[in-house]
Amino acid sequence: MKDISEALAVRLKSAATTLCLCWRLTRRDGARIGVTDHDVALTLAGVTYQPGGAIEAGRFTQSDGLKPGQGAGGGVLSSDAISADDLANGLWDGCRLDVYQADWTTPEAGQRHVWSGYLSEVRLNETGQFEADLVSLKSDLERPVGRVLQRRCDAVLGDARCGIAALGRSCDQRFETCRDVFSNSENFRGFPHMPGNDFILSGPAAANNDGGQR
Questions:
Q1: Are the CB atoms for 98 and 116 separated by under 8 Å?
Q2: What is the pLDDT of residues 81-136, one digit of tens each?
Q3: Closest to 22 (Cα-Cα) out of 134, 100, 106
Q4: What's the whole-model pTM score?
Q5: How confident is the model over 18-72, as pLDDT tens digits?
Q6: DSSP string of 33-100?
Q7: Residue 142's closest CA among 122, 158, 125, 118?
Q8: pLDDT at residue 1, rounded to an integer
Q9: Helix (H, G, I), strand (E, B), or coil: what is residue 109?
Q10: How many whole angstroms separate alpha carbon 211 and alpha carbon 129?
Q11: Is the CA virtual torsion 202, 205, 211, 214 positive or negative?
Q12: How far apart are CA 72 and CA 110, in angstroms?
């Protein structure tokens, strides 16, 4: 159950027309801004949310299981803190997004949490507005952790893990190529001796197998 003040709960039950959404965006570099669809600035829990239609409310979905919820949003580039250059350079991609609902007549009553997630992709449309695809915090559960076990090398020819100067050459990431062409088997970043699917799926030998222990 979401923790909200009694005063705000009363306003929500009354279907008040003085409710607004406040969006708090925290970039990966730590920069943070607050924007609201109200026409004056609001301060909630120590964060000031500036007006100007920087983001308009989109849609939000939640899921009961582990599948990430989705969302969408957009708006006019009217906030000084959100520039077209920053969007084009990807500074807002992947930023943390927290959405709250509040009553602008009594901001001291607190806020109701609506949704949390990330801006997974931000883009400009032909009218000069930006649109954003949103994904909930559950998306963290889908991020790969550690390395993928595979026979071929997962390094890029010429990078620090490879240690070989590319000089216009190419590599097919096979161990034999790394060993015979580049003499670089000690830096091979794959698992060439890992058993394949045929070995894993193969059954016991058909000959001299009576099912007993030896």
A1: yes
A2: 677 777 777 788 788 888 888 888 888 888 888 888 887 767 777 776 666 677 77
A3: 100
A4: 0.54
A5: 888 888 889 888 888 888 888 899 998 889 998 865 455 455 555 554 444 444 4
A6: EEEESSSS-EEETTEEEB-S-SSEEEEE---SSSSPPEEEEEEES--TTS-HHHHHTTTTTT-EEEEE
A7: 118
A8: 42
A9: helix
A10: 70
A11: negative
A12: 25
Domain range annotation of the chain: 6-142, 144-195
Tell me if residue 201 falls in helix, strand or coil.
helix
> What is the C-alpha to C-alpha distance for residues 119 and 133, in angstroms, rounded to an integer?
6
Q: Which of 59, 134, 56 is nearest to 92 (CA)?
A: 134
Question: Cβ-count burial of 6 within 10 angstroms (0-12 exposed, 13-18 middle, 19+ buried)?
Answer: exposed
Dump pLDDT digits (tens) for 139-194.
555 556 677 788 999 998 989 899 998 888 899 999 999 999 999 999 999 999 88
> Computed over its alpha carbons, how large is the radius of gyration of the chain?
27
20 is written with which tokens? 């607004």
| Phi/psi at 179 (5° precision) | -80, -50
Pick 190 or 197 by higher pLDDT: 190
Q: Letter for the amino acid at 154? A: D
Amino acid identity of residue 69, one-letter, is: G
Task: Give the Å distances, CA to CA, from 29 to 68, 133, 162, 205.
Answer: 24, 20, 29, 58
